[in-house]
Amino acid sequence: MDVELDDAELVRRIGAGTGREAEAELFHRLAPRIRLYGLRHLRNAAAAEDLAQNVMITTIEALRAGRLREPEKLVSFVLGTCRMTVLELRRGGQRKERLLERFGADMLAPVQPAMPRVDEEKLRRCVQNLSERERAVVVLTFYDERTGADLARFLGVSEANVRVIRHRAIHGLRQCMGVAA
Amino acid sequence: MNCQNPIDAAILADYWLGVMTEPEEERVELHLLACDACGERLREVIALGEGVRRLARAGSLRMVVSESFLRRAAEEGLRVREYAPPTGGGVACTVTAEDDILIGRLAVNLRNAGRVDLSICDERGIEQSRMRDIPVDSEASSVVYQESITFAKAMPDNKMIARLITVDAAGGERLLGEYLFNHTRSMPGPGV
After folding, report:
1. Are the Cβ atoms of A136 and B65 closer than 8 angstroms?
2. How many other β-carbons are positioned within 10 Å of the β-carbon of residue A18?
3. Chain B window 94-123: which residues touch A at a Cβ cutoff of 8 Å?
4. How far away is chain B from the Cα of A105, in angstroms, using its nearest Cα?
């Protein structure tokens, strides 16, 4: 689009039936965000991509039909659709092939912003430079997927303290890696 | 990509790890569905977490680990080589190309211990490095120490002494246990 429109204006244009371009723009904006939601809840890149496509189809259908009365509530609508679709995907309910037949492959082309690249040797040094407890918390959290109570017992501190240590470690690592805290 | 009200990276880590309450999580998700700048920060956090995960799998960190860490490593098919010298005793040890994780299980009574440090010394007992305030479970009967497998695979024959020391508030130290690791190199390379 020549002029960047806000989401609500895109919603209005799609609802007015004049928005093929607006649909593409909305897809371009929202699909990567939905994919992140999918990564968080499905822990699988392919499933997250399926989620993004399913949610966008449902959203655009709803917008075309004028079912979103308040365009400003687009994000809430999308979040609700994400939740429902995650449940459906977990049940294996929707098939990607069916969606491809209805909407075409162009519209559903994967939108996958690359994950930032991490310098692993630098990260190793940064992790090694953390305090013993900070290192234990980040490693056991990200590798062993231990949270709260387990880590609190291992460290002999409260769960609230584990959170404080984890936050300090994340900030320390980001600073050491040269990204803003 | 600008954000007027950016979400802190540590909060995004909480979100990624699923340790938020439902209302907190909903607030973050509504923001992320409208904000690419915070989405990018979340990607950085995810990449950082994945990097830490790979480092842990590589066994290249020198640190104290938990029993559940060892269980996870075994479940993932990693080969864990473990030595358990008695308190005041020693053990002959090595590491092979097939090993992924190298563990020293240091038997110790941690009841009434406050802060615990792990001191790594050369064969003369001179401290080379110290891990201060290591995580310890006062109910456990050992400290599980992971040596960097990368370091160990490159190490020539040598003797290493590990000491567990409790440190009181005034800085006074008391030895909890001493352990000798008599390492023989079994892989080709310099120093054999």
Report:
1. yes
2. 10
3. none
4. 24
The candidate with the shortest Cα–Cα distance to A136, out of B134, B50, B13, B44, is: B134
Domain B60-183, CATH number (from 3.40.50.2300, 1.10.10.10, 3.40.50.720, 2.60.40.4070): 2.60.40.4070
CB atoms near residue B13 (< 10 Å): 25
Per-residue model confidence as pLDDT tens for chain B (192 residues): 689 999 999 999 999 999 999 999 999 999 999 999 999 999 999 999 999 999 999 999 999 999 999 999 999 999 999 999 999 999 999 999 999 999 999 999 998 888 999 999 999 999 999 999 999 888 889 999 999 999 999 888 999 999 999 999 999 999 999 999 999 987 776 654
B18 and A CB contact within 8 Å:
yes
Which residue ranges make up each domain of chain A?
A: 7-103, 120-177
Buried b (16+ CB within 10 A) or exposed e, A77-107: bbbebbeebbeebeeeebeeeebeeebeeeb
**ipTM associated with this complex:** 0.91
Distance (Å, rounded) from C-alpha A146 to C-alpha A166? 12
pTM of the model: 0.86
Q: Do B68 and A140 touch (CB under 8 A)?
A: yes
Q: CB distance B9–A7 less than 8 Å?
A: no
